[in-house]
């Protein structure tokens, strides 16, 4: 839904310092897999072409993937810090709830009205896993940047 300022609200994926460190650790492992396989292939006495080929393929895929995960962790952590510094506490009231999947637990499409002190109310829709705590009329904690309506649902 379009806000009163004309811009779409943007959901911020919150990421604390531990989460960012874990994501960057996984990114480092992804980055190193290919070069390690290549080094092992070069050090092995066998003259098989399979290990160098696998190492080259893992390197070709792993380096861009690792860099992407590293950058995603950095962007998410920066967005979380920014929202924590400028955001105001708000309430997200569930005004619509539709079950979209129940294969691996229940996943709902949740429509919420976000409001708070000094904040023009706006609506957002997101998919959320949940159970009995999700029902029409329930209130969730939110953090909102009043300048651009970027937000995070805290529970």
Shape descriptor: elongated
Count of alpha and pi helical runs: 2
Q: In what range is the share of β-strand residues?
A: 25-35%
Mean pLDDT figure: 86
Q: Describe the biggest sheet?
A: 5 strands, antiparallel
Number of strand segments: 5
- Helix and strand element order: HHEEEEE
Query: Helical residue percent?
Result: 40-55%
Specify the structural class.
alpha+beta
Radius of gyration: 22 Å
Distance between the termini: 21 Å
Strand order of the largest sheet: 3-2-1-4-5
Low-confidence stretches: 1-5
Assembly of the depicted chains:
single chain
Any descriptors?
155 residues; alpha+beta; five-stranded antiparallel sheet; 41% helix; 28% strand; elongated; disordered N terminus
What's the helix and strand layout?
Elements: H1 17-43, H2 50-86, E1 88-101, E2 107-116, E3 119-129, E4 139-144, E5 151-153
Antiparallel strand pairs: 1-2, 1-4, 2-3, 4-5
Helix pairs in contact: 1-2
Question: What can you see in these coordinates?
Answer:
- The protein is α+β, with helices and mostly antiparallel strands.
- It has 2 helices and 5 strands; from the N terminus they run H-H-E-E-E-E-E.
- It has helices at residues 17-43, 50-86; strands at 88-101, 107-116, 119-129, 139-144, 151-153.
- It has a 5-stranded antiparallel beta sheet, covered by helices on one side.
- A hairpin with a 2-residue loop joins strand 2 (107-116) and strand 3 (119-129).
- Helix 1 (17-43) runs antiparallel to helix 2.
- It is elongated and about 70 Å long.
- The two termini are 21 Å apart.
- Mean pLDDT is 86; it is low at 1-5.
């Amino acid at each position: 839904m379009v806000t009163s300022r004309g811009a779409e609200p943007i959901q911020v994926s919150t990421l604390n310092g531990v989460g960012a460190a874990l994501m960057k650790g996984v990114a480092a492992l992804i980055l190193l897999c290919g070069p390690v396989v290549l080094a092992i292939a070069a050090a092995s006495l066998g003259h098989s072409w399979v290990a160098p080929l696998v190492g080259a393929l893992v390197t070709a895929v792993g380096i861009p993937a690792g860099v992407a995960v590293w950058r995603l962790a950095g962007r998410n952590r920066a967005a979380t810090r920014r929202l924590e510094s400028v955001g105001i506490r708000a309430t997200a009231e569930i005004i619509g709830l539709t079950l979209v999947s129940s294969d691996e637990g229940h996943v709902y499409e949740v429509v919420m009205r976000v409001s708070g002190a000094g904040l023009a109310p706006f609506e957002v829709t997101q998919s959320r896993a949940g159970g009995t705590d999700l029902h029409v009329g329930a209130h969730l904690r939110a953090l909102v940047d009043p300048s651009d309506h970027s937000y995070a649902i805290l529970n």
